[in-house]
Each structure stands twice: as C-alpha cells, then as structure tokens.
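HOLO CASE FILE
Compound: iron/sulfur cluster
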Amino acid sequence: MEKRQYQLSPNIRIVTGSEPGSAMAYHALYGNPRIINDEGLRFLNLFRRPISKEEIAQICDGDPRETIRAFAEVFFLVEPGFDEKEFLRHQMASHLVEVSSGRTVDRMGLAISDSCNFACTHCIHFQSSIDSNVGILPDRKQLNMSWETAKKCIDQYAGLMKKYGNRHGKMHFGNAEPLINWPVIEKVLRYCEGMSDLTFEFAINTNLTLMTREIAEVLKKYHVRIATSLDGTAQANDAIRISKGGAGTFNRIVEKFDLLADIGYPLDGFSITVTGGNFELIDTDVIDLAAQRGMTSIAFDYDLVGLVDIPVTKRVAKLMHLKKYANNKGIDFFGTWDSAFRNLTSRSLLTENHAFCAAVEGKTLEFNVDGSIKVCGHTTTQIGHIDTFERTFEVVGGLLGLVKSRFPGTDDYCSGCAIEGSCGGQCHVTREIVARSDGERRQRLFADLCDFYRAVTEALAVEYIHSSGR
Ligand code: SF4
Ligand code: SF4
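Model generated. Tokens follow.
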C-alpha cells in the first residue's frame, strides 16, 4: 500500500525574531501562528519535498508521528495535491449560509447625523463621502435621521436578535457628528430601555464639543461608551482637527474630557489620527496626557491614503515606538493597522475572523439617515433598505454579495500575499477611496497600503515572538 506523504504547505510563512533561536510560523491563509525553535524549523525543512512518516522516522531521532500530527493539524504540513484555496471556499460556503439567514449580525449602527460642526479634511467620513468628480460632498437632502426611521431600524434589528435567541444587542451612534441630532438619540435610548426582552450596549462616536452637562449625564445614565478623537497635544491636534472657521479645537475637546471626569464618567481613552499635517508633531507627549488622566486605551490610525510620501519603514517605526511607550504605561494601543495581526493571532481564520473586520464579515448593519443599509458607517456600498429589510439577506440583496467578494482567498490581487487570510483585502472603505483615484495613483496607493500592512504585521509578529520568550 502506498504510504501517506506530507509536504510543506506553500502557504507557510516564517517570521524570525529579533534574537536567534525563535521564530513564528503561520499559515498565510488559515493563520494558526506557532512559536517555533530552530529544531522545529529544521524538522519542517525535511518536508520541502513530499515525504512519508516512515522515511522521516529513518532520518530523525525518536518517533516523529506526534510532531507530524501537530504540524498537519495547523496545515503547516499537507498532503500533496491538497487544494488549500478550495478548502477555504468550502468554509466560505458555510459562512455564507449563516450570512443569508441573518444569524451573523450581532450589532447595529444608526447614522444619526451626516453633518458635522468640524471641518477635518482627513475625516474618514468626509473622504468616503466625497464625490471625486467635483471634489465636494454631494448635496444631500437629508442630513439627520428622523425618529420614525430610527424606530423602524431598531425594530428590525431587535426582531433579528430575538429570532436567534439573542437577548443582548449592540448599538452604535454615528456617523459624522451625532450630537447634532441629540433629540433622536435620547428618544432611542428611552425606547430601548422600554424593551423587556432585549438589553443594549450603546456606543457613540462624537467630537464632544456639542456635549452639554445634561447630555453627558444622559450618556452616563445609559452607560453609552464614548469614543472621541484628539489628534495629539495642542500643536499636533490643531494642525488638522479644526472647526469650520479653521480654528484649533484642542482646548474645546479637553474641556469636555474635564466635564466627563467631573460628573464621574471619565473617558477611558481617545483615538488619534495622523496625517501628513501632524505626522512630525505626534510624539509620546499625547500618551503622557492620556496616562495623566488615568486613561487605558488609545486607538491610533494613520490617514488612509494621505501618507504615501512618508516611507513605510518610518511609519511602522513610529507606530511601534508609540505602542511600546503606551504599553509600558499600561495603555492599550491599537488601530486598523493591527487588524491583520489580531486576526492572525485570534485562533484559526478557518473558523472565525473570516475577514478584515466585523463589517465585511457580515456582523454589522449600519442604517443610514434615509434608511438605506450598509455594513459600516463610512462605506458607500449600499446592501439594502429598511423598507425591504428581509431582502438584504437574500441572494439579490447586497450583504451576501459583499461578504462573498471580501472573503479571504477570493481576490486574485491578494493571491500569495504573506497575510492573505488575515488581511483579506484590507478595509473596505480604503478600497473604495483608492478605487476612485486615477490609474497610476490608484496603483501606488494600494501598493503602499499593502506594504504598510505587511510590514506592520511583521513588526508585531517580532514583538509577539519576543514577548512569548519572556
Ligand atoms: S490587500 Fe494587500 S496586504 Fe492585504 S492581503 Fe491583499 S495584497 Fe496582501
Ligand atoms: S470597512 Fe471595516 S475597517 Fe474599514 S472603516 Fe469600515 S469597519 Fe472600519
């Protein structure tokens, strides 16, 4: 009888640590990272050609069966002819069945207002909504969500949750500056409080400046998690985060940090966006500011497409430096940039984290001011409408098509990439923004972003190897 053979998967990737003797091996499509020593690497190298257990036993000390089994279990070793992409497509088919039933949805967003009292040009919402032909926001008739629309959206989402036995929902208020439409938020909070069979976890993204003490007290009462932005200390923030009149906003924002602390509802962190306008001004002083206020998390992100002229190595070095500094102060430091690494290290990509983010995995329903449905507050891709809610999940609806097109392993451009499974084609909004650029610039932007994601994922893997050895 022919003996079963194994060979090294063509998708195995090795990241070596900063010190000799340890590395991280993972599968580019399926994840499964493992810290591995020199002996393990030598063992794997024996499988550069198809070889049987019996042949391996002849050249190795001891019984290799257990080691082969362990490596085969995480697909570092596969049988010759095993089609790794086909196996992924099989996983996708079962995930799509779940998507089409609506079972994957676990959170909703309400685009409470599409207008904003700030004028930050780096704003992801502004960039994703901009009309590339005329260079300005398209003229929209409706900027605020009505209570009637909000109620309809909540009822549909609540129905979906109950259908699958979920007693706990997650609701996010966005989209540009939601506090502009505060009366609707307040009504929503009260309405949800009155639901006997469903509890909610609320979150809001706001620039804070419209928040009065009364509003702050209501947010506290309903435990609404507040996400806000401060793009550095005064000089760095005021270089890019500006009012409609062009004035800096640092003092106005920090004043509201104080207000929240004053009512006993302090922020646990904020997010920082870095563009070409404040890149050189951002330093550890903003982390000190967070630490002094007892904060524990900072979300940090580079402008999606505006840093192409700053070398990737410089961008990654800055990130890693700030991350280390923040972590040493007990502050969690994260952002879209670590999504691929987080996906890679959160168990197997075959069984969960099937995409870059929850939105393109089919977990989110974002209801726009006019009742149209998207997967994230910033994308321009519509997947349905509240008036024909059920259709969102049908083959003709948009959710299935979007999730399918974004499932890792489906995009030819990404084929063979070192983080193909964990990146899965990046943030959907970035893709939309890049796609609207001219031919040559489009290619440059996308290549730059890919280089960035690969480099930062590798830097995080090196850090991971180092911390695993401690
Ligand atoms: S988008 Fe770029 S970095 Fe991400 S998987 Fe595709 S090729 Fe790789
Ligand atoms: S597509 Fe995902 S990563 Fe991109 S902005 Fe939306 S939620 Fe964030």
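CASE NOTES: Residues 439-468 form the longest helix (30 residues). DSSP finds 18 helices and 16 strands in the chain.
CLOSED: yes
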